[in-house]
Design goal:
The complex is a heterodimer of chains A (98) and B (371). Chain A is an alpha+beta fold and 98 residues long. Chain A is 22% helix and 19% strand. Chain A has one domain: Beta-grasp domain (Ubiquitin-like (UB roll), Roll). Chain A has a five-stranded mixed beta sheet, covered by helices on one side. In chain B, strand 24 and strand 25 form a beta hairpin. Chain B has no helices and 30 strands. Classes of the chains: A alpha+beta (98), B mainly beta (371).
C-alpha cells in the first residue's frame, strides 16, 4: 500500500484523518499515485494538479525520503521506500504569506 | 415571511447570519471552509435551501460547494472550468497580449427559475453555466469571443467577470460586467453578446469613447423595472433607462463618486445606495467617516446615512459584492467591510447596527428572505 500525507486543508476536504493509504496498480509514480488519490477522493481533483495541464499547483511541493521530488518527471518511479510503504509520499503546502 | 439568512463570504471562510423578521437577534454560524477565501455565496430564488459557494485558495485553487439544506451541510461539486476551444489572448497591464488563464470564480448567480442552473463569472473573464447543480460547468463562449476580447484588460484586482444580472421579465436576457472591459448584454440566453458601454467615461484610456475597456465595479437592477440599471463605475455613478443602450451620470452631490457596491431598495425602485470611497488609490471612506449615501430619486440627489456607523478613524473598504437587501416588508439593507463588520439597517438606511464586528475581511454579502 502507498502512504500519502495530505496538507491539513485537503484532509478536511477529503474528510480523512492522518495518512491516506492507496492500492496503486502498476508502476508507482507521481502520476499513478495522484491518479489513484483523485479516483478515491474525487473532491481533490484540481486541488493538487491543474485539471487541464496536470501540472503541480505552484504552491504545493512533493517530498519523500527527505528528497524534494516536486520537479521530477511525473512518470519517474518513486523511491523504493515509498513503493514498499516504508515511507510516505508527502504533499506539502508551501510556506507563503508570512 | 419568517426571517432572513445573510450569507457572508470572507477572506478566511464563510459565515451565515440568521434572524427572524424582527432582525434584532442573530445566530452566527461559521467559519465554514475555514482558511479558504469565499469569494461569493448565493442562494436559489426558488429553493431557499439550495446554496452555492465559491471557495478559493492560492494553494489549492478553485472549489465550488453546494448546500441542499440551507447551509447546514455542504458538498464539493464540480470545479473544472475549461475555456471553450483555444482561448487566445487579452491585453495585459502594459498593453501586450497575454494568454487567457482560469484563476478563480468571482460570482455565482443561480437561475431565477431552476435551482439546478447556476452561472459563474470567472477570472480571466468568462461566463460559465451549470445545469446539474454545479456538478459540471460549460463556458458560454459567445461572450469571450464576441469580438473585443483581445482588448479586455485586467483591473487592479484582476480581469474578473464579477457581476451577473438576470432579467426577470425577459428570460433570455442578462447583463454582465467585467473589470476592465465593461457591460455586455445577451438577448438569446448567452449565445451572442453586445458591449453596452455608450455614455461611460474612461479617463484611464487613451481613446475617449472606446467600445470596451471600462472598469465597471457593479450593477444593480430592481426586478420590477428591468430596463433601468444603476452602475458604480470606477469613477462615476451611472444609470440607464433603456436596458444599457445608453448611460447617464447620476453622481450628483456625492462627496466622491468612486466606490464599489451599488444596490436598489427592495420595494422602491428609485431608492439606491452607494458607499463612496475616497479614490482609486485610497480605498477608504473620505475623512475616516463611514457613510452610506442614499438617493430616493434614482440618482443626482444623495443624502449621507451615518447613524450607527463609525464617524472617525474608519479606513475600511466595502467591496463590490458586499452589499445586499432583503425582501421583508420593512426591507433590510446590509453591507460588509474589509474590517470584518457586517452592518444592517432596518429603516431604509436611516440607522445602522453592527450584526457582527470581528469577522475576517468581508468579500461578499448576500441575503435570503426565508419563507
Amino acid at each position: 500500500m502507498i502512504r500519502v500525507v495530505l496538507p491539513p486543508h485537503l484532509r478536511t476536504l477529503a474528510n480523512v484523518r492522518g495518512e491516506v493509504t492507496l492500492d496503486v496498480k502498476g508502476q508507482i509514480t507521481q502520476r499513478s499515485v495522484l491518479d489513484a488519490l483523485e479516483t478515491r477522493y474525487p473532491m481533490l481533483s484540481g486541488t493538487i494538479r491543474d485539471h487541464v495541464t496536470q501540472q503541480r499547483r505552484p504552491f504545493l511541493r512533493f517530498f519523500a525520503c527527505e528528497q524534494d521530488l516536486s520537479n521530477e518527471l511525473p512518470d519517474r518511479p518513486l523511491p523504493d521506500a515509498v513503493v514498499s510503504g516504508t515511507e510516505p509520499f508527502l504533499i506539502v503546502g508551501a510556506i507563503a504569506g508570512g | 415571511m419568517s426571517g432572513v439568512r445573510v450569507l457572508v463570504g470572507t477572506r478566511k471562510g464563510a459565515f451565515t447570519l440568521t434572524s427572524n423578521e424582527k432582525r434584532d437577534q442573530w445566530d452566527v454560524s461559521g467559519p465554514h471552509f475555514g482558511g479558504w477565501q469565499i469569494y461569493h455565496m448565493k442562494g436559489s430564488a426558488v429553493d431557499s435551501n439550495r446554496l452555492y459557494a465559491s471557495q478559493y485558495s492560492d494553494w489549492f485553487g478553485q472549489l465550488i460547494q453546494r448546500s441542499d439544506d440551507g447551509g447546514k451541510t455542504w458538498q464539493p461539486v464540480g470545479n473544472k472550468f475549461v475555456y471553450d476551444g483555444v482561448p487566445g489572448t487579452h491585453k495585459w497591464y502594459d498593453g501586450t497580449p497575454h494568454p487567457w488563464e482560469f484563476k478563480r470564480v468571482w460570482h455565482l448567480e443561480p437561475s431565477l427559475t431552476d435551482p439546478d442552473t447556476v452561472y459563474a463569472g470567472v477570472e480571466d473573464a468568462a461566463l460559465f453555466r451549470s445545469t446539474d447543480a454545479g456538478q459540471t460547468w460549460s463556458e458560454l463562449p459567445g461572450l469571450r469571443t464576441q469580438g473585443s476580447g483581445d482588448l479586455w484588460q485586467p483591473g487592479a484586482g484582476g480581469m474578473g467577470l464579477h457581476t451577473i444580472v438576470l432579467d426577470p421579465s425577459h428570460p433570455d436576457r442578462m447583463f454582465i460586467a467585467i473589470s476592465a472591459a465593461g457591460v455586455f448584454r445577451t438577448d438569446d440566453s448567452g449565445k451572442t453578446w453586445r458591449p453596452m458601454n455608450h455614455g461611460l467615461k474612461a479617463p484611464y484610456l487613451a481613446e475617449s469613447t472606446p467600445e470596451v475597456g471600462f472598469c465597471v465595479h457593479h450593477l444593480a437592477m430592481h426586478p420590477s423595472r428591468p430596463n433601468v440599471l444603476f452602475m458604480q463605475l470606477h469613477w462615476d455613478v451611472m444609470r440607464t433607462d433603456d436596458g444599457a443602450e445608453s448611460w447617464q451620470e447620476v453622481s450628483g452631490n456625492l462627496p466622491t463618486d468612486f466606490g464599489f457596491p451599488i444596490e436598489v431598495h427592495a420595494h422602491e425602485p428609485d431608492t439606491i445606495y452607494v458607499v463612496p470611497i475616497k479614490s482609486d488609490s485610497e480605498h477608504y471612506p473620505p475623512e475616516g467617516k463611514l457613510r452610506v449615501y442614499r438617493s430616493r430619486k434614482g440618482g443626482h440627489e444623495w443624502e449621507a446615512l451615518s447613524k450607527g456607523l463609525p464617524q472617525s478613524d474608519c479606513y475600511v473598504n466595502i467591496l463590490r459584492d458586499a452589499m445586499a437587501v432583503d425582501l421583508l416588508d420593512s426591507s433590510g439593507v446590509y453591507f460588509g467591510t474589509t474590517g470584518g463588520q457586517v452592518y444592517g439597517s432596518f429603516d431604509d438606511g436611516d440607522s445602522w447596527t453592527a450584526i457582527v464586528r470581528d469577522l475576517p475581511a468581508v468579500l461578499s454579502v448576500e441575503v435570503q428572505t426565508l419563507p
